[in-house]
């Protein structure tokens, strides 16, 4: 084989050199520089839009109280004697409640329940302050939205569209959902302390609502325990008359004593379930919105969108240019 043939074979056996797909930073910066006005314009529009949006949001104030569960909230005297007399009481058909949830847990769940919040709003007539507030200022106080609620005639004039109920006054389904958005109740696992907070456009109303909620949950839990204690006393006294066993009589006397103690505490202790450690005060600084953060994020979003648009546009131009320069019958590399 001659030298020409060998040279031809060596040329055919030369390994394929892949095309360099690495990003050319100089070309990238040049593309961005050519599209700088597009990036600046989009960033400016987003920056102005974020400023206008942030200024349109009303100030929200947060009032909160720190509460401590009382001794009664952990189960009271019944839990103390549940282990001692649980077996004998079970034989008599009496449940001492040793395995039930403590009253703090029940109170926190009840505080956010639909039944409690519905009765709470109707009792204190808080519906306009929850559903029809337009703005608040120190000079004018709460200003109601006239398209929703007419203060002069005390009537609701809002327009309702399906699937909501066709009535102008908000239903419990609507305003309970609004209250749950405003209300936060949490308990620390380590200390057991409860934090109750309310967010609202009016700092005065937020503080008042926290105080009313604490007062109302104490009243509700007290009334529940009074009814339970009275029913238990009636049952225990009847059973005591019908038994001659000394052990069972001892159980009944202990239970009657604890139920009587419960009735006494409900009458002498206003803060029955939650004791206020740090009461709610009228907040002087807003908790939201974070306008500076909104403006920063909006501007960054506009800048990224502008850069992305410039790069995508350049990619389409490059692809169109490659197709235009491609010779007939030639496959793209």
From TrEMBL:
Q: Which domain of life is it from?
A: Bacteria
InterPro entries listed in its UniProt record: Bact_polysacc_biosynth/exp, GNVR, LPS_length_determ_N
Q: Which GO terms describe its cellular component?
A: plasma membrane
- Matches recorded under Pfam families: GNVR, Wzz
Please list the residue ranges annotated as the Tyrosine-protein kinase G-rich domain: 246-315
Chain ranges passing through the membrane? 37-55, 293-312
Topology versus the membrane: Multi-pass membrane protein
For the Polysaccharide chain length determinant N-terminal domain, which residue ranges apply? 21-123
State the UniProt keywords alphabetically.
Answer: Cell membrane, Membrane, Transmembrane, Transmembrane helix
Q: What is this protein called?
A: LPS O-antigen length regulator
């Amino acid at each position: 084989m001659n030298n020409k043939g060998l040279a031809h074979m060596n040329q055919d056996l030369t390994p394929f050199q892949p095309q360099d797909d690495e990003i050319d930073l100089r070309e990238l910066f040049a593309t961005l520089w050519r599209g700088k006005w597009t990036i600046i314009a989009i960033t400016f529009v987003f920056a102005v839009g974020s400023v206008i949006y942030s200024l349109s949001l009303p100030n929200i104030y947060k009032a909160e109280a720190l509460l401590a569960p009382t001794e009664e909230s952990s189960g009271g005297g019944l839990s103390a004697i549940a282990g001692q007399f649980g077996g004998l009481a079970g034989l008599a058909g009496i449940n001492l409640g040793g395995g039930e949830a403590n009253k703090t847990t029940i109170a926190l769940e009840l505080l956010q329940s639909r039944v409690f919040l519905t009765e709470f709003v109707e009792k204190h007539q808080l519906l306009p302050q929850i559903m029809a507030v337009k703005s608040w200022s120190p000079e004018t106080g709460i200003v109601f939205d006239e398209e929703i609620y007419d203060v002069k005639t005390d009537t609701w004039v809002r327009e309702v569209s399906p699937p909501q109920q066709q009535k102008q006054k908000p239903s419990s389904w609507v305003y309970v959902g609004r209250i749950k958005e405003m209300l936060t109740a949490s308990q620390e696992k380590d200390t057991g302390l409860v934090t109750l907070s309310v967010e609202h456009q009016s700092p005065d109303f937020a503080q008042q609502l926290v105080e009313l909620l604490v007062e109302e949950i104490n009243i509700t839990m007290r009334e529940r325990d009074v009814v339970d204690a009275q029913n238990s006393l009636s049952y225990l006294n009847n059973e005591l008359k019908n038994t001659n066993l000394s052990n069972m009589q001892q159980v009944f006397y202990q239970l009657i004593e604890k139920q009587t103690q419960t009735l006494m505490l409900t009458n002498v202790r206003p803060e029955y379930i939650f004791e206020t450690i740090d009461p709610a005060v009228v907040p002087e600084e807003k908790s939201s919105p974070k306008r500076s953060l909104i403006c920063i994020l909006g501007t960054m979003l506009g800048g990224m969108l502008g850069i992305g648009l410039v790069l995508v546009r350049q990619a389409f131009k490059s692809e169109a240019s490659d197709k235009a320069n491609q010779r007939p019958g030639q496959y793209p590399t």
